[in-house]
Amino acid sequence: MKKLCLRFWPLIFIFVIWFIFANPYFLQGRAPFAASYQLNNFAPWSAYPQFAGPVKNGAMPDVITQIYPWRHLAIEIWKSGQVPLWNPYSFAGTPLLANYQSAVLSPLNLLFFIFPFVDGWSILILLQPLLAGLSMYVFVRALKRSEIASLISSISFMFCGFMTSWMGYGTLGYAILPLPLTLFAVEKYFNTKKIRFLTLLSFTILLSFFSGHFQISIYFLLFAIVYILYKLIVTKDSSSFLKTSLFVGFGLLLVMPQLLPSTEFYLQSFRSSNFQKAEVIPLSYLPTLFAPDFFGNPVTRNDWFGHYAEWNGFIGVIPLILALYAITVKKKKEMLFFLVAGTAALLFALDTKLADLLVWVKVPVISTSAASRIVVVYSFMFAVLSAFGFDGLIRDLKDKKIKKIAIFFSILAALIALMWAAVYLEFHIPALKAVIAKNNLKLPTLVFFSGVGIVLLSALNKKFIYACGLLLLVLVSLDMLRFVSKWQEFSPKNLVFADLPVASAFSQISSPNRIMSNFGGEASIYFRLPSLEGYDALYIKRYGEFAASIADGKLRQSSRSVVMFPKDSPNTSAMMDLLGTKYVVHKNSDDGAGWTFPVWTYPGGQFAQIYQERAYKIYENRDVSPRAFLVGDYVVEEDPQKIITHLVSENIDLRKQIILEENPEILKSLESVGLAEIKKYKPNEIDIEVSSARPGLLFLSDNYYRGWKAEIDGKNVPILRANYTFRAVPVTSGKHLVKFRYQPQSFTIGLWLALGGALGIVVISLFPKFLARKI
User: Which of 304, 294, 291, 470 is nearest to 394 (CA)?
Assistant: First the structure.
């Protein structure tokens, strides 16, 4: 047992450091979730005084409004026996799997089938730094770095600024953490020619691209390919390069069930045409690479400049110093790769001409997202460099290159002194903010000089050199644990999406009938309340235009990530009726507020109160149209502006006439056609029973989107786009069963391609000589 512990002590060390961080969950039963932020700032919880209290971290809103509810919905659909392809609870219906950030296909979703949801979520979040640390250690050791050097790199990467700031999302971290394992697989295959490492390479691509963040997975893939090209250059081994490239191709085939639907959705969204220079890091923010809280921290609510999560490039004080020291040691080809790649990534993250270039060339996804996120590649590369720097420093200590070491640390000390001088002189820093910068510069400075002291101790006596390494490792661990623990909130499990008095009423109105409310996906998706509105980077462009244009009838784009209905427009009520909005959920404290739907302004009992408690009222819309109904009259119009103009016209009865973009070849009729009744309404399936006296059109107020199929009595029929962005199908007289099924061809093709990739991996893994003959 003792020998086993000695052999695996580095892995045990990583686990112990991780467990110290994660112990609030394992020992105290607390979940890694910003519940205090949710309860205080997000309706409906914020309406209840019993939840009021201090907020630890208010910098992760998307976890509450998007990531957690999406995953909760996806798991529920999986458990019902369906693939989570469609989300009927936002934007009048929108893709779920193709949304990408829902991570529908992540292998780690198995956790939610083993544990209660909040525990599955907690383990999902907490596994990120552990997996990052272990994979980083394995890779750096493959580069022939010492155990302590590899551990310093591992602790640095697993709790670096990017991994820490985005850990609570459970998506971005998983998109990048396979990178060290990917490079390990490449490194080992070029050295050993064993097929199992190529299989591992394909699997890491699957892990990244199924994780839930496409932009970070693109960075992951890009730098993996660059590393493969680097190996080709330094080894001249074209055979290994071709085989490695083949398995990269297999890996990409494996993820086609995600990539194809997501690409299709992206091209039909507003984001695909919204190129802009967003979230680059100003050069003045560079001091945070040394002192992450130089400009304050959202946790202590004293941040006054920048976007802490998006711009966080901190890798630890000592790892940064060691990475810089690597520049002074004898150059190894591997070290040069990490230096060049890391520096390039940092330059693309900064506010430089390179960032302008990305916007100018209009690279899909990359040019429409926060450019600063590529800083994670810098963090990874410089964390690896720190291992080279550590080994170089230890070697220089053994060779008594004291002068070189002294000059290096003197230069760094001078730079730190300049930072202090800038703070004291309030150079481009407001006086009140200088106090924040000064206080948050103290600890990094202390860590720096503690590291210098440890190195000086080793310089005085060679016997202390190994102890020097251990002390530096402990210092790195303490620094990074302090950093991550300050950021990540752990909350009592019962406060994560806590129970509410109004939730019992939600269960009564949850149905195909939609709601209007003053809350977002954190409630509408989680409590299964179909909403007209939504917040997401991707939404159907036509629907966004519809919502943005109904206020005054002028065609316009919706905002970048939000679709909201106008609350005070004369057209709002008519459109709510058209879309089957049967209920209005109103917070009592919002009476008279401009941001809520003014039910009190509609006379004649259109909105009747059906529920009330101290925080909320619920009103029923008595004039609402059914979610599906039959009409006999229609107008054919292709021009988008004219469609919108016609929809908001006072001369149209939206209950009796719809607007189509192609002629259904049905005789028009102003008389009642018949009745339609929804018999089944599931995310991917809708069954509607119709009884029609004459030929007409069945209108369904769900978004028109490629992938939806319709059949009447088992026969396929076309779905027509109606009223700008919704659905209609022609029906003949008589009784019929109309079935809508969401079966996107992109997903089906993706499954076949994934099967091809899997077969390729299996065949070559079982018969490696086949590959040897072909390449």
Answer: 470
